Amino acid sequence: MSTPVAPAGRQAGGTGPVPGRLVGALRGVRRFARGVLGSDAYDRYLHHHRITGCAHAPLSEKEFWRLKYAEQGENPSAGCC
Amino acid sequence: MSPSSPEPSSGAAAATADAPPAALPEQTVRAEQRWTPAKIVLWVAISLVGALGWVMLALARGETINAIWFVFAAVATYLVAYRFYAKFIQNRLVKPDDTRATPAEAEYDGKDYVPTDRRILFGHHFAAIAGAGPLVGPVLAAQMGYLPGTIWIIVGVVLAGAVQDFLVLVISTRRHGRSLGQMARDELGVVGGVAAFIATLTIMLIIVAILAMVVVNSLGESAWGVYSVGLTIPIAIFMGLYLRFLRPGKVFEVSVIGVALLLFAIISGRWVAETGWGDALFHLDRPVLAGLIIAYGFIAAVLPVWVLLAPRDYLSTFMKIGTIVMLAVAIIVVRPSISTPAVSEFASRTDGPVFTGGLFPFLFVTIACGALSGFHAMISSGTTPKLVEKERQMRMIGYGGMLMESFVAIMALVAAVSIDRGIYFAMNSSAAATGGTIEGAAQFVNSLGLTGVNLDPATLAQTAKDVGEESIVSRTGGAPTLAVGLAGIMHKLVGGPAMMAFWYHFAIMFEALFILTSVDAGTRVARFMLADALGGWKPRFRDHSWRVGAWITTAVMVAGWGSILMMGVLDPLGGINTLFPLFGIANQLLAAVALAICLVVFARKGRTWSLLIIFVPLAFTAVVTITGSFQKIFSSDPGVGYWANHIAYRDALAAGKTELGLAKTPEDMHAVVFNTAVQGSLSILFVVCTIIVIVVSLWRTWQALNGRNLLDTEAPRVESAYFAPAGMVPTPAEKELEGRWRDHLREHPEKDLAGTVGH
């Protein structure tokens, strides 16, 4: 279900050449960093939109982030001490 | 072993007939955990390394000790605790059920509820719980030597802190990700709920106030620091505008740009501080800085999130993870040798200059976040439960995340004890004691009668010069000490002595950055809590788009923490040393509240003896914090008790005296009378609220053990049609099942909630 962060996976595979594995590893690092920062929120939204079969057109990236920050302002969460 | 048994363990009838099971069969899980000779050898080896680390820390009596032993003792203990104790808690108390959908799956909405890769969620959760607390507390605790602090940070996290984070995550995940406050109301009823609410709100204010004071103390009279931390505001606004108008959603990209600008702000700080105008503009006194932070707190909290809070949060996350990894590498590579004694003279006294009070209970409250932090219960019951994929992953995220935080505290302790002890006390004694001069500081520190400490004023002058500051005397609050320690370690790894000043200001900036984020976020959370409470009286307050209401509630909350901050900054007795215990007590009282709620929930689930897993840390933290509060309230020693001090100064004023102790003028004496009254009253408020919560929860637990009042507040069970491995590295059986799910989801892309298969 969840693709491993580190290379492995289908494309990179055990037999893949070193550059392929390196690309896979870098992709994993990017995915991790984006996930931790929350940069992938729009991708998640689009994915949800796609698989739940909503009839209306999805929000544009700009609209989505505006709405997201507006909602974040309504539901603050504290960081920690 | 045959993991591919087609029959799911507990009759998990997934949504479609051809779907693989949502969990591994119980016998497969057990078979994979069977002991093999290789595993036994591995765990024996880990235990031996840990034991060796502890022996070196506790028993070695050489001149110095190498910092690497801290790493060995800590990491090996964490691994053993995670593998054995956390698993024991999981099996006996939590009993996770992976055939049951988590809120992320059951309430999947693509926004707040999304199944998130466990490794990403681990990073996310850790970034949310880690802040300035674990960095500051251990620095102050170093007053008593390294050993008491190390033991509490490691043993405390294993038996208390990580247990709390793990269990709060568990109970919130089973309740749609409800917050701690909501669960308190559900489980404890009105009285317990109201007490928990008051405790949470006031604790939030005191935490914001004291963190802000840490920033004020580290930036006071430091033009370089004020300039570079001040620049984070325009940098964050630039990032906000960039994301809003230029390239929406390019968070990673803008964070990289932001970090580059931050580094420039640190480097250019030296040039600016060396100019006449730079010094004139940015060399600010502490009360002025406190005023600026109060104004900043108000403006930041009423501005839309995208302007300051969100971009600042990206920067803090980036810096936090980057710096912590860097510091860990540096400690392992540089391996500084430590000359601080294991147990210092102050461990058996109550009059330490850094914080007053005896080892029990004040060491336990001073360390705060690194060992046990009630504040984490807010995170464990906020975002994380809405993102976790599987119930079995909560051990890694809740328990494991807190172990990481504890390791951060250990690193902070190592950084603090790696600096010369004389310098440590000169930096952490209040200005009233040292007079703020190098000569006064040297005289004061030498008069403490510490073995092996003979401080020369020239050493203090040289250290200040090395780190690019005018003075390092009486830089209380922990952050500057940590920065000197970090600079001392980092310059050996990167840059040499010439880079010490850079690393010092890097550390100051790093802490100020996320404290200011906490100030902003904490004010917002407190404002919403107040608005919801006021909504009962005037419903319009519940409408968050009502600007006037937002300004009023924000102003009230800022006035709340701002007045405590100002009081601390102007306190003739030093501020940090009197207020920090209040912060620690508040934070651990909140932990007691969180543990008390967990106790009721699991008692109502029918657990009996396994409740001891919660009861023991609850009893310990209750005893520590209630004893601490009582000493602060009732102690007749003016150095410890707020009211004793209050009465001493009040009587002295009544007798016509114009100075007493560290207060040299009648105005100072009036300030002490007022401050101690506020501090004493807050102590009473916290302890009363907490005692109410604990008593109510013990009563509910007793009822539940006798089969009465068995409320079931769990969300209804939803069958899971989703699979993900439980730990960081998938086992062979998990890999196999993951593969089957991948094939299945390729045929049914509409069920791929995490969206990781199609790409």
From TrEMBL, chain A:
InterPro entries noted in UniProt: Sel_put
Protein name, per record: YbdD/YjiX family protein
The organism of origin for this protein: Brachybacterium halotolerans
UniProtKB/TrEMBL annotation, chain B:
Membrane topology per record: Multi-pass membrane protein
Record-annotated membrane-spanning stretches: 40-60, 66-85, 126-145, 151-171, 191-216, 222-242, 254-273, 288-309, 321-338, 358-379, 399-419, 501-519, 548-570, 582-602, 609-630, 677-699
Domain CstA N-terminal: 66-627
Domain of life: Bacteria
Recorded family membership: Belongs to the peptide transporter carbon starvation (CstA) (TC 2.A.114) family.
Location of region: Disordered: 1-28
Compartments, as annotated in UniProt: Cell membrane
Bias kind Low complexity: ranges: 1-21
Swiss-Prot/TrEMBL keywords: Cell membrane, Membrane, Transmembrane, Transmembrane helix, Transport
Name of the protein this chain belongs to: Carbon starvation protein A
Native source species: Brachybacterium halotolerans
Record-linked InterPro entries: CstA, CstA_N
